[in-house]
Hints:
This protein is mainly alpha-helical. The chain has helices at about 5-15, 15-20, 25-35, 50-55, 60-70, 90-110, 115-135, 140-155, 160-180, 185, 190-200, 205-230; strands at about 75-80, 85. The chain is globular and about 55 Å long. It folds into two domains: about 5-85, Winged helix-like DNA-binding domain superfamily/Winged helix DNA-binding domain (Arc Repressor Mutant, subunit A), CATH 1.10.10.10; about 90-230, Up-down Bundle (Four Helix Bundle (Hemerythrin (Met), subunit A)), CATH 1.20.120.530. The longest helix has 23 residues, at about 205-230. About 70% of the residues lie in helices and about 5% in strands.
Amino acid sequence: MSVEADGWLRALAKERGDIDRSSTAERIADKLRTNVLDGDIKPGQQLNEKALGDVLRVSRNTLREAFRLLTHERLLVHEYSKGVFVRKPDWHDIEDLYGARRVVEGGAVRYWPRADEKAKNAVRDAVALGLTSAEKSDWVTVGTANVKFHQAITALAGSRRLNEEMQRLLAEVRLAFHVMGDPERFHKDYLPLNREILGHLERGAVREAEDSLADYFDRAEKHLVTGLRGE
């Protein structure tokens, strides 16, 4: 796998300066996790240690530590004698992930009335990005907008720890999106729900927003579990 052949590796190369300054496995893991969240790294993809090491200009040991961190987060898997691969979530993962999301996002959405405008604008911007991307039939970006929307909902609580945990949870969910296949077929039903949730919040109807979010989770979980089980 060459740097020339992979756009996401080229993008990492442009950000090499940030990593050069810190040279920590945590920083590299954060960069790779962001690539997963943005939909650039897909389930089943092998991560070429040499290519990544060359792009990031880090030692093999540092890179392996980053892989270890992401393996602990269930984003990567090491296959003996084969290498490191991006993990494919299964339906058991989905049930656990959505159980966690109900607790975190269901609680965070209640903070809307006291959240600052920057936090509220992040929710608005995510919905707007999804709508404009759908108009352009850019369904991969619609998926990214969906991730940003739920990150923004969590951020209403104003907790850095919750934001970091949600980033890890949504990275796993984004991998499941890929496994489902056609992004238009998957995402088109959820974009209106995000807009509905925002509409409730803008009217100050927080309880209705909470109910719509719960409905979103029920539908999305069932959709993903059914798809991953091949039913």
